[in-house]
Amino acid sequence: MFDDIFAKIYFGNTLLQYITCAVLVILGTILIFFFNRILEKKQKYIFHIFDRLTGSITEIPLHKYISPLLYIILFYTSIKSILTLPERLKHIIYIVFLASATYYGMRLLSALIKTSLTTYLRKRDKEIQEVEQKVRGISTFNNIVIWVLGIIFLISNIGFDVTAVITGLGIGGIALALASQNIFMDLFNYFVIFFDHPFQIGDFIVLDDIIGTVEKIGIKTTRIKSLQGEEIIISNTDLTSKRIHNYKKMERRRIVFSIGVVYKTLYEQLESIPALIKKIIENIEQTEFDRSHFKAYGDSSLEFETVYFILSSDYNTYMDIQQKINYNIFSEFKERGIEFAFPTRTVYLEK
Fold it and tell me: Structure pTM?
């Protein structure tokens, strides 16, 4: 009696085949469930080993990406190996399986690349915000490449002629590249900035008439906050083609300034000026005196040139110190009767 029931055919398959397929799916689901629980608990240990061996992979929620793949494979293999289906339905199930597997496979690959890239950048840069911004920019490009390859793989396995598709994409790509040449140049220069590191977010840079702090490095443009307060947006191509002065790594600032005294200044006073300026600079913190000399005879002054270093790259610190030096020079000169020169002209009249 039971043999007759199990042997009865429904939609091309016996009841026994349906039951066997259902049991296989249930058992597989249970196994995958326990596998995911184990993987979720042990993946920290697994990634710790990978990190020690390679130093390039950190924690990824593998169960979120692997579980769907395992379920898809389980359902597909159970149906394909046990049930007899019409060719059209079989082809539809194959396409659904392939599309789903490709989707989750591409997501897993994208997550692995993104995590490896994040770990690599964190070893180079300590600023988390900067690392995240770089990863977002590069991940966008990586995802485009990954998904294009995934779509080509899917189309190829479904049965379409990939050669014709690639040829069409190639022709369209050439036309698109010609139309978007500037965009691709900016994208290329974004990678130049990323790998060459001419500047980073937060760096104070000067190029041509632009002076400010780098706020954001995008795929196409870089944003600079100027000293006046406005945001300057400049393309990456224009940025990398200019000479950039980056003040971030400047450990000290070299300062050169000149003063002029009147020609009627006494010789003894002239001789005392370099030593006087040296004493003023050395008494100020964060400074390193280099030299001070009677440089030249000017049109209306005797010119002295002084060079010293400020042991800081901060511009405000430089201005504060220079201001203090100027105050002290003015005070000392006034006390000693040394007069500053200013443009004068003497006219001699003959009778």
Answer: 0.49
